[in-house]
């Protein structure tokens, strides 16, 4: 039986991922047409195309945004933890891309996508020992809702009665989770670590790293102090990713950010990404410091739709997306949106 869906608790806007809050790219003045004088190298001009591929972050620039379950500690009994940990054991970035494709591209409902995943992966097989009612929360974006449905299906298979509830953004839902208004939801390791950091402030450097074991070592005691229990992290990570068209990757023989640095750093290369880009460690600054990548231009675009549209239309060389974007699934084409006619 599918989990019941409750009315949403709050409709506050969501910035769910560290990738979205820390993903900045570029200099406020770098969106013009003239390459900065300190940029060296020829770079590579954009190549239009209707399929995208993310360049591998082979030097692990991004923090460990592994998907994991977080509970109100009173609800984290052995049966409940075993159920959601069974999901973590089989959830990878590739399977999460396919789940997001199902929902965002193929327009399958999150509940049906979750059911199909649980059947195919076998994650819900052999679960038992659960009793009582649990409310699974999710933030106001499709990936979170889909993951909540996956957790709900596993918990139902273990014997729990499960309801789903939309719970808004992290500031709202972690308070509600601590208060026991719901019992469990999907989270992201690095983002949750930064949020629970007791020493966090406006100028605090990120403490989470690309090493999930190191991140978990910081997260777990802070979660316990907050009355929360975290389950096992999955292999699936939702971080900033840097996409190019498949045509571009094939033309230049590029599949990693290191290869891009070697072959395409320079004046002709154009980066697209969020407007708040200048000094952020997981975007343009990090790309230059970690990989030595320089861009001749920066275009201010959102981290999803606009960046993907600019890629397929050949307006930018590299676009900032999320690593689990359904458009990165094999065989998915991104149709260019019609341009307005000039009057």
UniProtKB/TrEMBL annotation:
Region Disordered, annotated ranges: 323-343
Domain ABC-type glycine betaine transport system substrate-binding, residue spans: 51-119, 133-329
InterPro entries tied to this protein: ABC_Gly_betaine_transp_sub-bd
Pfam families: OpuAC
GO molecular function, one term: transmembrane transporter activity
The entry's keywords: Signal
GO cellular component terms listed in the entry, alphabetical order: ATP-binding cassette (ABC) transporter complex
Keyword NAD: no
Family annotation (PROSITE patterns): PROKAR_LIPOPROTEIN (PS51257)
Signal peptide positions on this chain: 1-26
Signal listed as a keyword: yes
Protein name per its UniProtKB record: Osmoprotectant transport system substrate-binding protein
Organism: Stackebrandtia albiflava
């Amino acid at each position: 039986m599918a989990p019941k869906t409750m009315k949403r608790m709050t409709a506050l806007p969501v910035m769910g991922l560290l990738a979205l809050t820390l993903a900045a790219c570029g200099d406020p003045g770098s969106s013009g047409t003239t390459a900065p004088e300190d940029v060296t190298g020829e770079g590579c001009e954009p190549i239009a195309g209707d399929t995208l591929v993310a360049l591998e972050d082979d030097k692990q620039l991004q923090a460990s945004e592994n998907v994991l379950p977080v509970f109100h500690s009173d609800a984290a009994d052995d049966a409940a933890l075993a159920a959601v940990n069974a999901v973590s054991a089989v959830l990878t970035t590739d399977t999460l891309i396919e789940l997001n494709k199902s929902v965002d591209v193929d327009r399958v409902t999150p509940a049906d996508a979750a059911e199909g995943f649980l059947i195919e992966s076998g994650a819900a097989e052999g679960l038992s020992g659960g009793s009582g009612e649990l409310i699974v929360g999710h933030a106001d974006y499709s990936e979170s809702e889909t993951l909540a449905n996956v957790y709900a299906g596993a918990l139902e298979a273990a014997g729990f009665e499960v309801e789903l509830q939309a719970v808004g953004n992290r500031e709202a839902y972690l308070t509600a989770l601590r208060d026991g208004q719901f019992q469990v939801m999907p989270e992201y390791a690095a983002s949750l670590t930064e949020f629970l950091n007791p020493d966090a402030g406006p100028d605090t450097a990120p403490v989470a790293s690309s090493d999930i074991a190191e991140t978990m070592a910081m997260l777990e005691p802070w979660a316990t102090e907050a009355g929360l229990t975290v389950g096992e992290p999955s292999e699936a990570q939702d971080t900033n990713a840097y996409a190019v068209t498949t045509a571009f990757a094939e033309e230049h023989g590029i599949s990693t950010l290191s290869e891009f640095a070697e072959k395409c750093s320079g004046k002709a290369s154009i980066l697209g990404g969020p407007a708040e880009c200048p000094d952020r460690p997981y975007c343009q600054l990090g790309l230059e410091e970690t990989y030595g990548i320089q861009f001749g231009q920066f275009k201010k675009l959102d981290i999803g739709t606009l960046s993907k549209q600019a890629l397929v239309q050949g307006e930018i060389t590299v676009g900032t997306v999320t690593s689990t974007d359904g458009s990165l699934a094999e065989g998915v084409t991104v149709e260019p949106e019609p341009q307005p006619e000039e009057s």
